[in-house]
Amino acid sequence: MAGEIGHFSLILALAFALVGASLPHIGALRGDNRLMALADRAVLAQFLMAVVAFAALTYAFVTSDFSVMNVAANSHSLKPMLYKISGVWGNHEGSLLFWVLILTLFGALVSWRGKKLPLRFRSRVLAVQSLLVFGFLCFILFTSNPFLRLDPAPLEGTGLNPLLQDPGLAFHPPMLYLGYVGLSIAFSFAVAALLEGEVTPLWARWVRPWALLAWVFLTGGIALGSWWAYYELGWGGWWFWDPVENASFMPWLAATALLHSAIVVEKRDALKSWTILLAIIAFSFSLLGTFLVRSGVITSVHAFATDPARGIFILAFLALVIGGSMALYAWRAPRLSPGGLFGVVSRESGLVLNNIFLSTFAAVVLVGTLYPLFVEAAGAGQITVGPPFFEYAAAVLMSPLIVALGFGPLLAWKRGKLSRAAQIVFPALVVALVAGTVLVWRTTGGYVMTAFGLGLAVWLITSVLLEIAGRIKLWQAPGKALGGLAKITRAQWGMSLAHAGLGVILLGITVSEAFTDEQLLVMAPGDTASVAGYDFTFDGVAPVAGPNFSAVRGFFQVSEEGAFLTTLTPEDRVYTNPAMNTTEAAIYPLFAGDLYAVIGEATGTGRWSVRLYFKPFISGLWLGALMMMIGGILSLSDRRLRIGMPTGKRSKVGRAV
Amino acid sequence: MSGLNKGLKTRKQQRLLVVSAAVTTLVGAVLLVLFALGGDSLSLFLQPSDVKEKQISAGQHFRLGGLVEAGSFSRDADGLTYRFSVTDCAATLPVQFKGLLPDLFREGQGVVTEGELNADGVFVASTVLAKHDENYNPPGTLPKSADQCVHPENSPYEANQSQVGG
Which SS3 state, helix, strand or coil, does residue A350 take? Predict the structure, then answer.
């Protein structure tokens, strides 16, 4: 019964989406307030229907109703409850339903909190959002219906891929989707602004929180996925420049650029046309990501079950959305009134520079990701673009960005002085140079690139600290510094924290890449291996039984200079449904780095193949990502920025133009 | 700095500046892409019959995709070096890999390996990538003459057994 209710509510939602996507536009053309106000109700109705459909599918998963094909294919009655629930979005059909749920939720939020937006503009935004909902619902109903029945119903389900039965991965897709879909709001606002032919600072005050929210979720989703790969795949790697990873990284880059350029629109009423374009591009990257992941056009190690019909549908949808919005942009953007002027050295210029580098990087990643597709289409055989390409591009494009990042926040709006900024951050340059030089000297010139990366990271972190110190006048009036600290707004704390987070990530990457100690060994019980000064003593193995797996658990006593640190217990699990092996790495984070052990197979005569690592400061990656997220949330919680807070008043800075 | 003192530039000059900065970066990026795509970062993605056809020489880095041939899996005495054959059902190539195999590695399943041929014509893999989902074959690993293969994926349990036994 639940399946039919879910199916039916999806069809109703489709009807509401069609109403919501068409009538408000007609209302806006005719100036009919009642038609425009329909948008609010249509969006709310879509949301309610999506909730019912999602609840129905969740119910089918929780009760293990195997007459629903999707449940039979992706669940199993013995699976722990957490993974029964995460199984709802852990598959193609369910994840699309989840996508629609978020899409309608965000639409409903805009309608609920956006009563202060002019009715005409709000109805335009909601109508564009409804159109997206309509597209995705068509996709679900025609190619990927999660409510199809099986007759006869199987007695037991196939089970969920054991690799995906993991807390990290249970929340990775929803986070990413919240990010992807959050960008849809920025997109809808951009298209609505193009239709209305007007971009105001108020527009930016609306778009920026959404871009920021999407960015926080994207950051979290990417970090979770990376963390999952790090501990679950047992290779000790965390990023592979795989097309599917790039698919989430490109929207992140675009969202980062967007939330910076929206500041310029908000504060200085400049860069309007570019920000609109960026909002369109950011969401297009989200759709492209979905297309790459769901269509299987590109060889990826992250394989998802795919279907050509779905690929063609998403491609057509992609072409319509991107083509349509770009055409609209080309037609309407020239009508936007030109914005304020700024000097060559100014905060605006810094943000423009940020945007140039981030978008160029996104473009390069796009080229690298799609290049194999073009080569293959041209009949030149199959090729892959490997990590060196992306790493090279990242180094070349991100280094100047990070150098500029040290100066940017110190420059004044409209007209800044480089000399003043240079004076403040000069100590950071010294510290960075010293750090780099010491490393080169200590390693007798062996790690020049590492020294460079280390220098950049130190430069960024120090200059963020110096910026805060300068803001509270720590040097001029140390006595009043604490009071100054309290005066810093949350948005400013957010910015500093996020920027420092980037530095911490860079530090983690640089140090762990250069100084990881890795040993691949065959060990017998009682053997001791030394990894980066830590002694791993193998204490043998024991069998373990889990709810739906059995495992071999290895025991490693780790000590440093005779002092016992911890026992690492990596596992090699064999799941029963579906039958599959997974490796559970054992990780013990120390301040200096992670101890990491993986147990392989028995090699006969009681010996086991094992892989032991010491990964210095790798936690910097997750710590930095966490700092970025907290920074974003702090900034969001700033009263001036809170979603729905903007009032009709134009900001005073905006009027100063 | 004199430009600063004179005040702000005109709108046209400002646009020119921004656009030229963007164009410079973009041109730089294009050069970078061309340069980098010409180097080591590009690797061919081949199946065993392509390797034979194109007469790939020893030492050239490429990715090899195909199915792990049933019954080909063995381990050297050191316990860390694995040998198996990758097949596209038209040709077969012996592969050697030192390390821990990924979780989803098993006979009869699709696999992507990266490395180079040695002088004996054995593909020495530096990485072995298996896929995340047992229901899916990456495009590059689907055999070209699949009808000639007995596809063991229909009985994953047996395939798994043979790997544990092998």
Answer: helix
Q: Which amino acid is at B163?
A: Q
Q: Using the predicted structure, report yes or no on whether residue A182 has a pLDDT greater than 80.
A: yes
Size of interface A-B (CB pairs under 8 A): 169
B103 and A583 within 8 Å at the Cβ level: the answer is: yes
What's the topology of domain A1-165? Four Helix Bundle (Hemerythrin (Met), subunit A) (1.20.120)
Q: Chain A residue with minimal CA distance to B16?
A: A344
Residues B154, B121, single domain; the answer is yes
B93 and B113 belong to one structural domain: yes
CATH code of B117's domain: 2.40.50.140
Chain A residues in contact with B27 by the CB 8 A cut-off are none
The confidence score (pLDDT) of residue A5 equals 93
Q: Please give the pLDDT value at position A231.
A: 82
Give the structural domain span for B28: 2-37
- Residue linked to tokens 């890999």: B97
Is there a single domain that holds both residue B23 and residue B85?
no
The secondary element (H helix, E strand) that includes residue A534 is strand A534-545
* Amino acid identity, position B57: S
Q: In CATH, which of 2.60.98, 3.40.50, 3.10.20, 3.10.450 is domain A517-617?
A: 2.60.98
Question: Does the bond joining A162 to the residue before it have cis omega, within 30 degrees of 0?
Answer: no
Nearest CA in chain A to B35: A389
User: Nearest Cβ partner of A301 from B3, B100, B131?
Assistant: B131
Give me the number of domains chain B comprises: 2
What count of other Cβ atoms lies within 10 Å of the Cβ of residue A380?
10
Which of A234, A364, A580 has its CB closest to that of B100? Answer: A234
- What's the pLDDT score for residue B140? 52
| Residue A382 confidence (pLDDT) above 80 | no
Give the global pTM. 0.88
Whether B29 has its CB under 8 Å from any CB of chain A: the answer is yes
In whole angstroms, what is the distance from residue A520 CA to residue A598 CA? 10
**Model ipTM value:** 0.72
Residue A249 carries which side chain, given as an amino acid letter?
Answer: F
Minimum Cα–Cα distance from A522: chain B residue: B79
- Give the pLDDT score at B134: 45
Q: Determine the Cα–Cα distance for residues A8 and A13; give it in Å rounded to an integer.
A: 9
Omega before A570 cis (within 30°)? no
Strand, helix or coil for residue A341: coil
- To test the contact with chain A by mutation, choose from B104, B109, B153, B161 the residue with the greatest count of A C-beta atoms within 10 A, namely B104
- Mean pLDDT by groups of 10 residues along chain B of 166 residues: 49 79 83 69 80 81 84 81 86 87 74 86 84 49 53 38 30
pLDDT exceeds 90 at position A295:
no
A356: nearest CB among B25, B39, B157: B25
Contact list, A345 vs chain B (CB under 8 Å) = 4
Does residue B59 share a domain with residue B17? no
Note the pLDDT tens digit of each residue in A131-157.
999 999 999 999 889 998 888 888 888
Q: Positive or negative, the Cα torsion across A385, A387, A388, A390?
A: positive
Domain ranges, ordered by start, for chain A: 1-165, 417-515+620-629, 517-617
B136 with A306: Cβ contact below 8 A: yes
Q: Which residue did the predictor score with more confidence, A299 or A416?
A: A416
Amino acid at A590: L
* Structure confidence by residue, pLDDT tens digits, A251-276: 999 999 999 998 888 888 888 888 99
Nearest in space to B113 (alpha carbons), one of B136, B140, B79: B140
Chain A nearest C-alpha distance from B153 (Å): 12
Among partner residues B50, B79, B132, which is closest to A522 by beta-carbon distance?
B79
- Measured between beta carbons, the chain B residues lying within 8 angstroms of A417 are 4
Q: Of A220-224, A518-522, B26-30, B94-98, which gets the smallest average pLDDT?
A: B26-30
Query: Does B154 reach chain A within 8 Å, measured CB to CB?
Result: no
Give φ, ψ of B45 to 5 degrees.
-115, 110
